[in-house]
C-alpha cells in the first residue's frame, strides 16, 4: 500500500477505502472482503469490503434521480464538464499511470498510453457535445417538417475489465456524460484502486458544477453479483460490458429479458495475414508488439499469424530471434517490454493451452515457460510463446488471455481470409501486404469479418477516433469514436404539421 498511498492521496482518495461512491459521498461495502494484490510481486497492498448487490439498488436510484435533472443541462455544458475532466487527467497522468502499472502490471509506457486514451476520448467527447446531430428528412406531405432528435437515454451501467482499467471506463463515461446519461461503474475487482482514483478525479470535477447533480457518476466495487444486479436493473436502459464472452452472454441474456440495450465488448481471437509482398521488417515489429505486448492481455492481442508459405521460414526465424530477446520483468523498470500476467490463474490457462496445442500437433518454437530469475519474486512472468500449429487444431478457436501466438501457413489469399474468419470471435484483424488488390480484398465485403481490419499494422493499439468493437462472439458493440455515441442516446422522430390541412401519409383517406 505504501507506494499506492501517496499516489492515491494526490488523486484525492484519502482515508479508508470504500466500495461504494455516489459523487463524492462514499459508503463502506457490506459484502465480502476484497484483497488487492499487485501482479508485479503478488503482494497484497489493500483490503476492504466490497459492495453487495443490494447496495447497487440505492446507487442506481440516485443515478436515476440525477438523470431527471442532468438531461436538461445543455449538451455543450455537459461537454464543458468532460473538458475539465480531461484537464485533470492531464495533470494526473503520471500518477494514474503508476496505479495502472501497480494493479494491472502494464509497462509504464503502456500505462501512460492508456491514460492518454482517456484524455483523447475526453477531447473527442467535448467536440461531440456540439455535434449530436439528427437528420432533417424530406416529408411526403406539404407543409410538414420531418426530423429526428437525439435525447439522453438514461443512466448507463458500465462494467470494465482489469486489462484496460481506465481507458474503457473513459470511452463510456466521456460519451455517456456528453449524451446526458449518468454513469454507474463496476470496475474489475482486480483493479479497484485505479477505479477509486478515476472516480475521485471525475466526481471532484462534477462537484465544480452547481448545475450538475453529484450522482451523475458513481462507483460500485464488488464481485460478479454486483454486475449481475446492474444488468438486471430496470432503471439502467443501457449496460456496457467489457470482458469474457461467458460474462457477456450472461449480461446479454439478463438485459435482453427486460428489453434493455447492451453494448458488448467481449473476447477476440485476432489474426494477421502476412502476404508475399509484406515488408517483413515492419511485419515482425508489428507482430511482436501485437502478440507479446501487454503480455498478451489485450482483447486486441494478436493470437494467430497466417503466413504465406514462401515467407514462413524466414518470418519464423526472425520472429523467434526477436522473441528470445524480449525483456521480461518488472514493468516499472525502464527497458522492460513484457510485464507480468495478472495472476496465477492466467498462467494456468496459458499452460493448459500450450499443453493442448502440443497434444494437437503444435510445436512450441520458443517461449511458453515461466521466468524466475531477474524478475520480482511473487509475480507471474512468462516468456511469450510462438507455436506453429495446424489451423484445424481446436485450441486455435479459443482466446487464451496470455502471450501465445499460433502460426499457420497458407497458399492462397482465399484460404488465408477463410482462416482469418474461421473462429467464433470477430474483433480485430490485419494484413501485411504491398499489393493493393489484396489489401482492398481483405478490407472489402468478402474479406475480414471483424470489426477492425487493418493494413500494414497490427491488430492492437487502435486510436479512439474509430468505432471500436467486433462481430460474432465479440458481441457486436461499438464504443469510443465515430458514431458510437448513438448507443448512449434515444432517437425521437418528430413530424410537425404546419399546414391547415391534415393529409395522411401514403395517401390514405379517412374523412370524418
Ligand atoms: C481492450 O483490450 O479491452 O486497441 C481494449 C487497443 C486499445 C484498447 C484495447 N486501444 O488495443
Short description:
This protein has 512 residues and is of the alpha/beta class.
SSE layout and pairings?
Elements lengths: L1 H10 L8 E3 L2 E3 L5 E5 L6 E6 L3 H18 L4 H17 L1 H12 L3 H21 L7 E2 L6 E9 L3 E4 L7 H12 L4 E4 L5 H15 L10 E4 L3 H9 L5 E5 L2 H13 L3 E5 L4 E5 L5 H13 L9 E7 L3 H14 L18 H16 L3 E4 L18 E4 L15 E7 L2 H9 L3 E2 L1 E5 L3 H8 L8 E4 L11 E2 L2 E2 L6 E2 L8 E9 L15
Parallel strand pairs: 7-8, 7-10, 8-9, 10-11, 12-13, 12-18, 13-16, 15-16, 18-19
Antiparallel strand pairs: 1-2, 1-9, 3-4, 5-6, 6-23, 14-15, 17-21, 20-22
Helix pairs in contact: 1-4, 2-8, 3-5, 3-7, 4-5, 4-7, 5-6, 8-9, 10-11
Bound molecules: 2-aminohexanedioic acid.
The site of 2-aminohexanedioic acid has 11 residues, from loops.
